[in-house]
Design goal:
Length: 216
């Protein structure tokens, strides 16, 4: 009796993989056109699509898992052949699964910035303030870009297609306000530290907590 081969397990979900699966489900296309479509839709502000190599790597991974397949090959004289991809039925199912999971959780488990904040006392207060001020400048530019994008959208464009920018602006504004508060406190000395102070805190809190754990 002939048995069908089981479909490979789905790869670890990724935002770029989800965007690719959704785009190719709507319309089969080659990688160059897909990259331009993402940029036109503003998806380059929510996932890294500027690198075509990343797109190729993502598609190759999705192909290996039977979530994307080759639809056709486009031949244009004087240019390399362009492979047109499309999402498979299995890919559509996985895309829906990923989307539900991301809507529910949708955060990196261990964000780098939060990890850095937890040990920022390794640097001097002035060094930390300088780096956070640079971060605030970058976020302010990103916020201005998002606001310009929403302001420049067609008046009759449904809000459904602007939700990611609304959310992005809200998060950028909140972090920017927090950063400015922290840098102000660092500048005025309301938030500061030194090696002797850190040793004192370690002796008073960390050693005490370790003793409690050992005794429990």
């Amino acid at each position: 009796m002939v048995t069908s081969m089981p479909r490979p397990t789905a790869p670890h979900r990724s935002a770029l993989g989800l965007i690719v699966l959704t785009q190719l489900a709507a319309e089969p296309m080659h990688v160059y056109r897909m990259q331009k479509a993402f940029e036109a839709q503003g998806k380059d502000r929510v996932v890294n699509v500027r690198s075509r190599a990343s797109l190729y790597q993502t598609i190759e991974r999705l192909v290996r898992h039977d979530l994307v397949e080759v639809s056709a090959t486009e031949r244009v004289e004087g240019y390399p052949d362009r492979v047109i991809y499309r999402t498979t039925p299995a890919g559509r199912e996985v895309a829906h699964e990923w989307l539900r999971e991301m809507l529910l959780s949708g955060e990196d488990e261990y964000p780098e910035f939060i990890a850095a904040l937890s040990i920022m006392f390794v640097l001097t207060p002035d060094d930390v303030r300088s780096e956070l001020e640079l971060r605030a400048e970058r976020l302010a530019a990103e916020l201005a870009d998002a606001e310009a994008s929403v302001a420049g959208a067609p008046e009759d464009l449904p809000r459904l297609f602007l939700l990611e920018e609304e959310y992005r602006m809200t998060m950028l504004h909140a972090e920017l306000e927090w950063l400015r508060g922290v840098t102000d406190d660092l500048r005025e000395g309301r938030l500061t530290w030194s090696e002797p102070w850190l040793r004192e805190v370690a002796a008073n809190f960390l050693d005490e907590q370790a003793t409690e754990v050992e005794g429990s």
